[in-house]
Amino acid sequence: MALNQRGAVVATDGGLPHQNTVQLGLKHLEDYIIHKRNIYKPKVAENDYQNYIMLGYYRNALNFVFFNEAMILCSLQSQGVQVAWKDGMPMNELFKRSVYLSEVLKREEVLKDRITLKTRDYFDSLITFMQ
After folding, report:
1. Helix or strand or coil: residue 44?
2. How far is residue 125 CA from its own chain's centroid?
3. Do residues 123 and 95 lie in contact, with contact meaning Cβ atoms separated by under 8 Å?
4. Which tens digits make up the pLDDT trace of 12-70?
5. Where are the beta strands (DSSP E) in 1-131?
6. Angle at 54 between CA 33 and CA 44, to 5 degrees
7. Cα–Cα distance between 95 and 124 in angstroms, integer?
8. Which sign, positive or negative, has the C-alpha torsion 112, 122, 100, 51?
9. Of 94, 100, 93, 92, residue with least CA distance to 116
10. CA triple 93-94-97, angle to 5 deg
11. How far apart are CA 4 and CA 7, in angstroms?
12. DSSP class of residue 39?
């Protein structure tokens, strides 16, 4: 339901991997990940972060669906988790930080709508949707 609300196409032919595909992919990546209690994380040995680069090639097919919301949440948390929860952040400051982060990461995802200085209305509607 959350995917449909965001306009993502979810069907057997929607481009998302099936369970068998995910299982085969995890088998293929077993040298690069650690699996404990249904949590997967990259293996890192002696400050060697090459596994992060390898796993970057196998990114989640749903990143684009939550990309703008992630920009907003990262911007909110940029002042510290405790401060964000206790004091919040003025909306103009949140918009400014979200625009900056979106600009830094603009080549990571191809999006129909993106947070920019010219799309304040979109930002406001996204905040309303997130609430």
Report:
1. coil
2. 19
3. yes
4. 555 666 777 777 777 777 777 888 887 877 777 777 767 766 666 666 667 788 889 98
5. 33-36, 39-42
6. 45
7. 9
8. negative
9. 100
10. 85
11. 5
12. E
Task: Compute the distance between CA of residue 55 and CA of residue 72 in angstroms, rounded to an integer.
Answer: 24
pTM of the model: 0.63
pLDDT given for residue 27 in this prediction: 79
SS3 34: strand
pLDDT band at 6 (very low <50, low <70, confident <90, very high): confident
Nearest residue to 92 (alpha-carbon basis) of 70, 71, 123? 123
Q: Which of 105, 25, 34 is nearest to 60 (CA)?
A: 25
Query: Could you report the per-residue pLDDT of 69-113, keeping only the tens digit for each?
Result: 989 999 999 888 888 888 888 999 999 999 999 999 888 888 888
Other CB atoms within 10 A of residue 102 CB: 25
CA distance 103 to 115: 8
Task: Give the integer Cα–Cα distance in Å for 65 and 57.
Answer: 18
* Secondary structure of residue 89 in the 3-state scheme: coil
Per the CB < 8 A criterion, the answer to whether 105 and 74 are in contact is no
